[in-house]
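Write out the bound-state structure for heme C.
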Amino acid sequence: MTLTAGALADPLVERPAVDTTDLQTLAPGWAATNPLRGLAQAQAIGRQAFNQTCARCHGAEADGSRSPAPDLRRIGLACRRVKDAELKQRCLSDADHFFVTSVRYGKQKFGIVHMPPFDGVLEPALVYALRSYVETAPRP
Ligand code: HEC
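---
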């Protein structure tokens, strides 16, 4: 796909220089829900990675202060209010899926790249660490 090839040629689409060796080993592939949710180490690594790779568009606190990139803190926020454990899990799964696919495939509309795809650049552990960080970013 030409969009992906173009984005990969973009020098700004590169893996952040973060060390993930201390993260727990994950099963290969993409999980149904973020396996690194709530882990301090993942949040710290995710924060570093976010600052290097995402903050230029989404703002350092993921708050969308750099319009037009949206506030990422609200993704899955409503799940916190869900009381039923099974339903809450499905809610989080859905939010994680949205986050992961947004990062992997980017956002293109009418052939214009609003966000480049990071598939093949960021491995699952790093995407989950990013997700873990965004969930801890200060909320309004
Ligand atoms: C070149 C700027 C740019 C970079 C770099 C970028 N994004 Fe985005 N991102 C955007 C824009 C703009 C949108 C909204 C696109 C749209 O919906 O049309 C978006 C949308 C998203 C969404 C969906 C949000 C929603 O509510 O619709 C997620 C999740 C996301 N980005 C995560 C990330 C992460 C994590 C990174 C770093 C790995 C990143 N982005 C890097 C510009 C960027």
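---
DSSP finds five helices and two strands in the chain.
Residues 1-8 have pLDDT under 50 and may be disordered.
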